[in-house]
C-alpha cells in the first residue's frame, strides 16, 4: 500500500475534515456507479476515491457565500 500525504491532496485552503468528507462522498459515488453497472473490482472504492483526489481528477469546492452570524 502506498502512503499518500494529506498535504499533497489539499490545495492549502481546505481542511482535513473537508477532505475526509469529500473522499467519503466520492467513494459512495464510485460504489453506486460500479453497482449500477454490475462491475466487480478488487480495488476498494475508498482507495479509488483517494487516487482521484491525489491525481486532482476531483477537487474540493468551498462555498463562496458563507454567512456569518
Structural account:
This protein is an all-alpha fold. The chain has a domain at 13-54. The chain has 3 helices and no strands. α2 (16-36) packs across α3. It is globular. The N and C termini lie far apart (44 Å). The model has no long low-confidence stretch (mean pLDDT 82).
Number of strands: 0
Largest sheet: none
> How far apart, in Å, are the first and last alpha carbons?
44 Å
Give the integer mean of the pLDDT values. Answer: 82
Task: Write the element-wise H/E pattern from the N-terminal end onward.
Answer: HHH
User: Which percent bin holds the helix content?
Assistant: 40-55%
Number of helices: 3
**What proportion of the residues form beta strands (DSSP E)?**
under 5%
Q: Name the poorly predicted regions.
A: none
Helix and strand composition category: mainly alpha
Alpha carbon gyration radius: 14 Å
Overall 3D form: globular
Mind sketching the topology for me?
Elements: H1 6-9, H2 16-36, H3 45-54
Helix pairs in contact: 2-3
Write a concise synopsis of the structure shown:
The chain is mainly alpha-helical.
Give the tags:
69 residues; mainly alpha; 0% strand; globular
Amino acid at each position: 500500500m502506498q502512503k499518500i500525504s494529506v498535504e499533497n491532496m489539499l490545495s492549502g485552503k481546505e481542511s482535513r475534515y473537508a477532505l475526509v468528507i469529500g473522499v467519503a462522498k466520492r467513494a459512495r459515488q464510485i460504489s453506486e456507479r460500479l453497482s449500477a453497472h454490475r462491475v466487480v473490482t478488487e480495488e476498494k472504492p475508498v482507495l479509488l476515491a483517494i487516487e482521484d483526489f491525489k491525481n486532482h481528477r476531483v477537487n474540493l469546492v468551498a462555498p463562496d457565500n458563507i454567512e456569518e452570524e
